[in-house]
Automatic annotation (TrEMBL):
InterPro entries: Fungal_SecMet_Regulators (IPR051127), XnlR_reg_dom (IPR007219)
Record Pfam families: Fungal_trans (PF04082)
Source organism (scientific name): Uncinocarpus reesii (strain UAMH 1704)
Keyword Translocase in record: no
Entry keyword annotation includes DNA damage: no
Protein name: Xylanolytic transcriptional activator regulatory domain-containing protein
One of the GO BP terms on file: DNA-templated transcription
Amino acid sequence: MPSSQVGSRHSSSELKKGRSAESNLCFSQVYIGGAASLSFLQFIRETVVQYTGPSGFTHNAKIDSMLEDASAAAEEVSYNGDHVTFDEKIAFLRLYRLATSGIIDVISTSEATQLLEEMESSATVVHSSRLAVADLILAIGAQCPKADTAAVQKVNLFFTRGQKRAFSGMLEDPNLELVWAFLLMAFYMLGACRRNAGFMYLGVATRAAVALGLHDEDSYASLAPVESEKRYVRPNQAQVHESAIDGTFRLQTWMSLCVLDLLVSSILGRPSATSSLRLKLENGLIAKTTHVHLLASYTITHLMDTVTSELYGQKAVSTDAAEQFLRKLDRWSKELPNVMRTASPNLNSPKEQEHTLGSIQVGCFYYFATMLVTRPFLISTLTARLVRSCQGNPSSDSSTPTACEDPTHAKLASACVDSAAYLIQTCQDARKVDLLLSNMCIMK
């Protein structure tokens, strides 16, 4: 099939030439790439207003400020953390595991429980980096329920305290938990609809990870599989902090960082911090990665990043390139383990809830990646139909194919709509079984 440009009036390059900046909370212009969801929304609004005139959809201040949520800005903390019981902290930990399932996997439930117990013990001296991680785990967990005054106070307490501990001299002496802290701060900010802040924290996490050599495949040469529930061993705090952490921690940390960074960069249409540093897991490392959701997310987000850089980086999108990407996505889908294809029959168990929600989030990544590949063809196809409807035959239906349009473009446009419908249906199914959380803004 010969390579062809998308559309004559509205090609993918014209989509990129639309608004490439949005205002943040300080009314400064920040970059939003052509592959970004907000760029697509702005393109639709600008197209619709040409034919319908101003409306609540085309001129809406709330839509214009979608990049940042002013209500999520940090407030002065006056809440006393002593009011939070250990049982509440364990509940927040379970919610944290749910919220991050399929995206971040750096610390297991038993390992995090041990960390919380260290916080509770007055006889244990805990390093500030570990305290920061514990606070940020609790902050993300406290984000998950529906917000009320008490919940907001707890969230602000944990995040502000964790943030201060993370910045407390740690940039001069990076360790693995520094990477965790900034990774978790990025996830928290994304959950608070503060995408720019999350994007910037990811940059710091990446530089800290590079300083520790997590991007270097040779550093994993001696990595051996370790049972996940028995990894977190810290004999005493006098030992060198990094030496007590095995290679499995390092690998999962790097994979988690890449997943969140590539996902956020694809959504915002911005260059990724980890893309050029990404590890190739084919050389034996993949066999040592037992976390199926993390591995699946690592692979699909790399495909997303490739779509963003290669497909949207061209002046015109070819059907050949799009179909090649779709074949890669289809191959990835078929290689998923069976355990990820079915929901658990028993969602009363926290472990099964975590597994099911992780599979849901990975499934949403697949639908989003498909939409990224096919979106330029949806734009060109519907715009061409709209133009013909307004100029040639006002009574014709712009949603139906015409004899003169490219059937391959129409097929790819249909795939985009189908993927969006499947993504919505997946989220609705998760909502029916009460698995959606309040801080799942990445899914939004």
